Known about the structure:
Blueprint: H1 7-21, E1 34-39, H2 50-68, E2 72-74, E3 78-79, H3 84-93, H4 97-114, E4 125-126, H5 130-145, E5 149-159, E6 164-166, E7 185-194, H6 200-205, H7 215-225, E8 227-236, E9 243-248, E10 259-262, H8 267-272, H9 278-288, H10 293-297, E11 305-313, E12 320-326, E13 337-340, H11 346-354, E14 363-364, E15 384-385, H12 396-410, E16 413-419, E17 424-425, E18 427-428, E19 438-441, E20 445-448, H13 476-479, E21 480-482, E22 489-492, E23 496-497, H14 499-502, H15 506-509, H16 522-528, E24 533-537, H17 543-557, E25 570-573, E26 576-583, E27 589-590, E28 595-598, E29 601-604, E30 610-617, H18 628-635, H19 637-646, E31 654-655, H20 658-680, H21 697-716, H22 723-738, H23 746-759, H24 764-773, H25 790-793, E32 797-804, E33 807-815, H26 820-828, H27 831-836, E34 842-848, E35 852-857
Parallel strand pairs: 1-2, 1-24, 3-4, 10-12, 24-25, 26-31, 32-35
Antiparallel strand pairs: 5-6, 5-7, 7-17, 8-9, 8-16, 10-13, 11-12, 14-15, 18-23, 19-20, 19-22, 21-22, 26-27, 26-30, 28-29, 29-30, 32-33, 34-35
Amino acid sequence: xxxxxxPSEIEAKWQKQWSDSQLYLTEENSDKPKFYAxxxxxxxxxxxxxxxxxxxxxxxxxxxxxxMRGYRVLHPMGWDAFGLPAENAAIDRGIHPAKWxxxxxxxxxxxxxxxxxxxxxxxxxxxxxxxxxxxxxxLFLQFFEAGLAxxxxxxxxxxxxxxxxxxxxxxxxxxxxxxxxxxxxxxxLKQWFLRITAYAxxxxxxxxxxxxxxxxxxxMQENWIGKSLGAYLEFPIVGREEKIPVFTTRxxxxxxxxxxxxxxxxxxxxxxxxxxxxxAVEAFIKEVTQESEIERTAEDKPKRGILTGGxxxxxxxxEEIPILVADYVLYEYGTGAVMGVPAHDTRDFQFAKENxxxxxxxxxxxxxQQEEFTLTQAYTxxxxxVNSGQFTGMESEAAKQxxxxxxxxxxxxRQQVQYRLRDWLISRQxxxxxxxxxxxxxDCGIVPVPVEDLPVTLPENVEFTGRGPSxxxxxxxxxxxxxxxxxxxxxxxxxxxDTFIDSSWYFLRxxxxxxxxxxxxxxxxxxxxxxxxxxxxxxxxxxxxxYSRFFTKVLRDRGLVKISEPFDRLxxxxxxxxxxxxxxxxxxYLRPDxxxxxxxxxxxxxxxxxxxxxxxxxxxxxYNGVDPQEVLSKYGxxxxxxxxxxxxxxxxxxxxxSADVEGQYRFLNRVWLLVNEFIDNPNSAKDTRxxxxxxTKEEKDLRRVIHTAIKEITQDxxxxxxxxxxxxxxxxxxxxxxxxxxxxxPVYREGIEALVRLLAPFAPHISEELWHRLGNTxxxxxxxxxxADEEALQAETITIVIQVKGxxxxxxxxxxDATMEQIKQYALxxxxxxxxxxxxxxxxxxxxxxxxVNFVIA
Length: 858
């Protein structure tokens, strides 16, 4: 009687043995090629979700495969552990953020270990640990010394619930905080920034050096950086010495400028406002600055603006034009001012119509006659210039260059490259983040904390109320310190850093995680970097990935690393989606126990209203999540891994289906039975030694199946990682062995062992157990990856289809190396030809080598 497959016992047993033997300790042997396999590290929320499972399992399969291929593999894990949720927990539950965070880490670490991941836990990093954030602070000082970290007063996104500043990327499209859900406000505060704009061009150009990245991610970064080539022009202000600078990508339209617009926050706005307009302009500014950037620039929102009373001069025409202030112009973008060309810009056309501003046509289509051209909407295409002085009659592209040259010669403009990208706002008015290592001295100004005094640690005696300024700002004994330069009373910086700072360099720390003298040694980081395969969600396409690229380039320029790009290949795995129930009338999401299926339709049990069912990203609020622990408890980690890998290609969304989970569990049970039947049979071959020249046709056929599986699975684990088709090949091999009569042949044992070894990266526990039951003492995960025998792949005979007048009549077997003429003769002499052709004349014979013979008869 065979032992049944008991995943819970097997998995616990091997996880302990792997841990005790330190099987997955990173090799530092430089004789082997290196492979750095990395998943984006998680925020320690306390519980794994299926998105985590998919991410980490994908990376684990790659890491295991590469080890078997002879690489020394770095496969670490850590925790992105600073952030608002921990501080909110402190406010809501009275538990210190550190305690909450470390308890969650312990829980999630155990869950990760339950998945059987081949992680080197000796390299674990935690960003909220002083041993880690000491070096985050040290790196900040590197930026400061290089002039890349600076403080300025700026209009910021203020979260009134969390009482903190948000980056633009942390505000939703409709102006709400992505963390708290609060309506975001605008405030002026002194903030710390990193000068990412200094690297805009290199960040853009180096995207071309990343062929291993998804094209959509590169396009998203390219759009975010937003390079524009155009003209910088200055419009003099009537009665003042100042000029209004603008940037435009359409200098060919300058003769059509009929007004200029300033941002409400622009320092010139109130200066150019006339006394009679002062009250209205101030009220407008107050109203607009309470709106978020998203609200102000939304395409579907009417653009609002008012006259300031001030006038500017169009330097090309000499005409006086009105100066307005409008909501859609942002001070942080470009120059904080725009020129209005209503005839040739859709937004300006609408704005001019609403505000009774003049509209002047200066470009018409190439095939249009000026006197016949009528403007019913903005003409935004290129064309021929009209009403444009000396440039009239020129084509748009030529006119752009000519006008820029003219402006340069006259001293009121020049050619300019501009980027949409803005400097990275890193200040956060919170406690649970990395303290910024700066001291403010009344006499010396901004003074960096001396390196020997790092880390600036977070104080323990903190009160969390959720109201007012940062808890750090309230701790006078922490804030008040002597100036490191002059010794006089000074104050610490009370802002902490954006958590994206922590995740912008963690992949470097993994290479040397216990170094207490520097963030990482040059030798180790240059040995392991770049990351060979990075795996994470598409939601990080702009923020984390762009910031990490920026950090790497700065550290390169500081002589700390030699690479320019941190991640060689990037895989953005699809989302895990759950079956979702939603009341059609109310839009309310429902739990599975709140719906009923009757008469071919789902219904809301309580209201008897119709319910729509569809797949959507798993979420607590949508009641469509599946707890990984429940799946592991019922089926085991190997089944969960196999389902995650088999259900969909890694870059596609995955629809969770319990029936498919059950299907993978049944497959592993079949493998278990198949291998154990072989082991328990006393007549089974004891080894895989055989003479290839003495094999029977049946043995050769079986070897072909085995080595086809090896070849196909190897191909699936290279390139685009087609795990689903690799598992299909495992199923084919399993079926071929199950139905094969050669149970006692050494070739059959070769097939059994191949099945176990090929399964190992996907289902590591059952593979290890079966490998040892087969009589092996060393881990299956230390075995070399199998290489397909090209000779075994060659078929002795091939199947040829016989057609008569294009209709298939049967098949024959011919030698694999038969020539076209020989194939023709085999077909002619076959019983099929005799039956369907007989004595009829064959007018033409078409031979498709390796596939078919078609006879055309009279």
